[in-house]
Amino acid sequence: MKDLLTKVANTAISRFGAQYAEARGQNLSKTIFTMKEGRMEAAKQGIETGVAIRVLVGGAWGFASVGTLDEAVLVESAGDACAMAKAANARIKEPVKLAPAKPVDARVEAKPKQNPAEISIEDKIKTATETTKVTLSRDSRVKSCTFDYLDLTGKSVFCNSEGTCIEQDKLYVWSKITASALQNGVFTFSREEIGSTSGYEIFETETPQTIGTRLADRAIQQLDAKPPKGGVFPAVLGPNVVGVFVHEAFGHLAEADLAMAGGVLAYNMGKKIASDLVTFYDDGTLEGAFGSFKYDDEGVPAQKTLLIKDGVVAGLMHNRETAQKFQAQPTGNARAEDFRVEPIIRMRNTYMAPRDRDFEELLGGVKDGYFLKSFRGGQANLDGTFQVGIQEAYRIVKGELAEPVRDASISGNTLETLLKVDAVGKDFALDSGRCGKGQTAFIGDGGPHIRVSEVTIGGSA
Amino acid sequence: MAAHNKEALLSLAEKTVRTALQKGAAEAEAYVYEGKATSVGIERGQISKTSRTIDHGVGIRVQIKKAIGFAYTNKLEDAAAIEAAVGEAVAAASASNPDKDWKGLPQKKPYASAPPGMFDPKIPELHAEDLVNLSARMLDAAGHGDKRVFAIEGGAGAGFGSNAVANSNGVSAFDEGTMVECSLATLAKEGNTVTPVCFEFNAERNLHVNPEWVGKEAARLAVSSLATQRVETKTYRLVLTQFALQELFYYTLINAVKADSVERNQSPFKDKLGTQVGSEAVTIVDDGLLAGGLRTGIFDAEGMPHQKTPIIERGVLKNFLYDDYTARKHGMESTGNASRGAYLSTPNIEATNFHVMPGTKSPEQLLSEVEDGLLVSYLQGAHSSNPVSGEFSVVATPAWRIRKGKIEHATRGVMLAGNIFELLKNVAIVGSNERKMGQLVAPWLLVENAKVIGK
């Protein structure tokens, strides 16, 4: 495929007048299924092939995606992309330019202990069945259990007109398991998400027993929980909530495209915006983590990118276009979900660095507040406001964990909240998830337990 | 790629079904999709991106001993690849567990006559230049007059898709549709103040979109979100726009009326058919045949006829939404609500056009009914609502304070907390200003007794 893609990229330059061209070809296989209460909805297998062509002509982008490896169609599509870019560049005031990237010729092989492509679908179904059994049999009040499974394997080949040609294996294993419980008309809901780029061996640590138990226990515990009082409180955040906060509330602001689009971070480079205790990374190099890879979809090596160091904004996440605008280095954050879409700036594994406190010390500082252990969902706006829904939380009374609360959420201004981080734990955990920004990306996020002196707790009470 | 390829798609679907039966499937269905989308993108105020995606593929669903298997491939020109995919589907079914509730693939049923305006033959002929012009008109309209407004992103897109579905029970159907949309996200800056992102769009099945209106509205929203004040924590009257309703309904109400949610105890509407679940002002119809609707078509994703299904009539719950599988499991008939991600997935239940029937009051008249309240445009965090209980706790941004029937100022730090099903009972007045937004077709709603957490 390398020769074909190189030829297509070079033809865009020589025949259609592109200043830059790239072709990204993929052969992908997927296994996907959903099991509800132990009943298989449908076991699904997918095979897909296609090429994404991206060209720069007169400072405007042209992009074409086709589901074929046929050379004549690809060359025609390259011409189409160039013609479209020409239609757009007539009005361009600031032509798009790319930061330099060193040409790379590389082959990246996945080396799973257990390759999901070689595991039979029967075995995958068995894992789901066992997890469902553990969840539903834990307590009669658990009423439903949904097990979503996906694995993706295959090859992605990226070649551009600057001499880069990279062939990478792709390997993802992902699962989301949800349960609901019912008692006296009160419904509760609990979710777990796991993911790996190592291999199917993830299910050796996240066994049906551990996942099912955690899931069911949380749903049951919530049944007796009361909604929290709304208002401003001190809170201890678990790694899972810290992770979603780092990702949603802060991370998106540090994506250079969104920062340029008017996000608050663009004005704050080199400035202190958070407590001294706050250090954030976006790291594509963690072995096996769900957001890790070797080269991004512009052929730039993934790296460990420092975003905040001791409270000071240290950097943004870039692709080649934004790196040029900011006079920075590309950070390897350009990712495309598949050949149907163009690469955009996405996070990898985004986390807060741990410090020195024990969990008990964190709780000890709170007279009347909340421990927010596990999230349900989160969202943020460019103006720096965020909202995180919480699926598992407890009151903290006089430094001790007290009764559970349900359907809490936290909200506030991200930068104000970062200034209120007053203690950071020494533990660390990373969760796997998916992030939507028009396209879906597999990501990781996490951190230690932390304490914030004030955050707005929303509840329905 | 040809725009009108009815025969080719149908014959591919039928042939794939025959191949599956030959390979041992007891029942088989093939869903063939072909689509082309062209778009022009705006970034930071200028048109700098163009894109064309041509996508096609076939999804094959088979049943063997009541176990279901599914496979897809996008290699339509490669007969061996399609045959291999059929083999994968058969293998997946053989590996899977039997479903004792399986009653069979859908049986052929007559379709209603095609609703008008689903396919505009001018759309497949559009060039990138046409969309560049559309985007430029929108940007020009947004840029007029106010230096504080920044167009962040947006653009214009046009697409058409055709699909054919065939199964071993005699279903064999073809449909095609077009869509054009333009959208613009803006924000306004003044001093150190940055507004939340404001968004406006217009999507239609034909070429009659209004880019000037989108540009002007997106700019107006951003400017009116400057100069915020906080509001007191208390109970208010709210006027909810379609953006807010879409967010709230999508994760809660729409799920609650899906028959599979009900059956799985994931809906508070279980055992509530025929009872009052909303105020008398609320009437909702799921209408897969709505003229000009963004989800309108002759049939659903498994070839069952689209129809008009009353969901809530004057507050009384009337029906749930069914696909064929869930319907037959309960001795009912499909309501034509099977949906699928083109050829990539099996059907699942989804609303078509979820139509909240309009009332008679204009937006101004709605506002004039509010002595002290909020106009809520966008919500953050609705996707973290409890989908089962309907409890939500979301940020309203931007939202505007209404006093004595007039919009007074923008707000910040406003959280709404409540329960969507309680909210439905508190709908006092339904506006007349309906618009389409994805699957939702609705006017503004005035809601009483809403808990707002402010300062």
Short key terms for the protein model shown above:
heterodimer; A: alpha+beta; PmbA/TldD fold; 2 domains; six-stranded mixed β-sheet; B: 455 residues; alpha+beta; 10 helices; 25 strands; globular
Quick recap of the structure?
Chain A is of the alpha+beta class. Chain A has helices at 2-14, 71-89, 121-137, 202-205, 208-223, 239-250, 256-260, 320-326, 359-364, 414-419; strands at 20-36, 39-57, 60-66, 105-108, 142-160, 165-183, 186-196, 231-237, 280-283, 304-309, 312-313, 334-335, 344-345, 349-352, 368-380, 385-397, 400-405, 408-413, 421-424, 429-436, 440-447, 450-458. In chain A, the strands form 4 sheets. In chain A, strands 1, 2, 3, 4, 5, 6 and 7 form a 7-stranded mixed β-sheet that branches. Chain A has a 6-stranded mixed β-sheet with strand order 11-10-9-14-21-20.
Task: Describe the overall structure.
The complex is a heterodimer of chains A (461) and B (455). Chain A has helices at 2-14, 71-89, 121-137, 202-205, 208-223, 239-250, 256-260, 320-326, 359-364, 414-419; strands spanning 20-36, 39-57, 60-66, 105-108, 142-160, 165-183, 186-196, 231-237, 280-283, 304-309, 312-313, 334-335, 344-345, 349-352, 368-380, 385-397, 400-405, 408-413, 421-424, 429-436, 440-447, 450-458. With 461 residues, chain A is an alpha+beta fold. Chain A folds into 2 domains: 2-223, PmbA/TldD superfamily (PmbA/TldD fold), CATH 3.30.2290; 231-458, no CATH class. In chain A, the strands form 4 sheets. In chain A, strands 1, 2, 3, 4, 5, 6 and 7 form a 7-stranded mixed β-sheet that branches. In chain A, strands 11-10-9-14-21-20 form a 6-stranded mixed β-sheet. In chain A, helix 1 (2-14) packs parallel to helix 2 and helix 3 (121-137) packs parallel to helix 5. Chain A is globular and about 70 Å long. The mean pLDDT of chain A is 93. Chain B has 2 domains: 6-224, PmbA/TldD superfamily (PmbA/TldD fold), CATH 3.30.2290; 228-453, no CATH class. Chain B contains 10 helices and 25 strands. In chain B, the strands form 4 sheets. In chain B, strands 8, 9, 16, 17, 18, 19, 20, 21, 22 and 25 form a 10-stranded mixed β-sheet that branches. In chain B, a hairpin with an 8-residue loop joins strand 13 and strand 14 (348-349). In chain B, helix 3 (128-143) packs parallel to helix 4 (211-224). The longest helix of chain B is centred in the first third of the chain and has 17 residues, at 6-22. Chain B is globular and about 70 Å long. Strand 2 of chain A pairs parallel with strand 3 of chain B, so a sheet runs across the interface.
